[in-house]
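QA checklist item 7 of 12: single-chain prediction sanity check.
[x] sequence parsed
[x] length recorded as 338
[x] structure emitted
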Amino acid sequence: MTTTRVVLPGVVEPEGLRLEQVDLPAPTTGQVLVAVEASGISYAEQQMRRGRYYDQPAFPFTPGYDLVGTVVDLGPGTPAGLLGQRVAAMTKTGGWATHALVPAGDLVPVPSGVDPAEASTLVVNGITAWSMLHRSAKVRAGQTVLVHGANGGVGTVLVQLARDAGARVIGTASPRHHDALRDLGVEPVDHRGDVEAQVRALAPDGVDAVFDHVGGAGLFASHRLLRRGGTLVSYGSAATRDDSGNPTWPVLKLVARLAGWNVRPDGRRATFFNVWAGRRNPARFQARIREDLGSVFALLAQGRLSTHVAATFPLGEVAEAMRLAESRTVVGKVVLLP
């Protein structure tokens, strides 16, 4: 099988991404071959392009944190019923291609009738949002949560899941996105102003959970906004995206700060969410991913969750797609259609 794939050769501008054609071997034991129909552009690839993702592979490699497609070939030991099925998988790399080899255990069925691009927006974002909301923060009906970057890929899913769970949602975003957030039931605040003061005006006693992908100095305000018993879930360090130096250092510094807060006797909890945590136990990890993403897909199929595809591009226009994704001007996720 010949596949066309995107190659990230090193630290380059988006125009430095290139296409190449290579022959794929037949799937081995436990693998399947997927004809890729959609693969999203996430914040992880934006960091990888800069060499800033803390555990990215050595250059060159094919980016693509997720994929949605149809199983077209099976390796030995894989269930025959997978052939012809539309599936989704979280891959970390390799999704930006026309075909990909994927472990069968990583596959999650996509409900019939769901558009591949819409499903793609929910793979990484949906798993992240569901896990942070229900596993990390354990948000309940009647609670109030703050979502930073509520117009982003994870943010738009997270606010909907929180509203579906019965929570009140405050979300930060640029004013041009506030009407869209209000349509989702979110109380928007301007991320460029004094976020802490704006949130205090809406929730004087603080909030029950904060979901923060920004890090940096703003993380202190996120922690202060928690009421007793609240949880800060940190899941990134966007504030350091354009920094130079060792990409591991910002993450280690962030985790150390969260750990320091947890020893304070103030009744507030801080945690770092890593979507790959637990990978050393593959069976348990895969079961969790299937459960969480399956729950998100079920809400989508029931009409209780809407997706936000900011734009779609063919694989050959990956540079333009990357620039749009990095512009911070869109609501939702930019998706490649191989």
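[x] summary fact logged: The mean pLDDT is 95.
[ ] second reviewer sign-off
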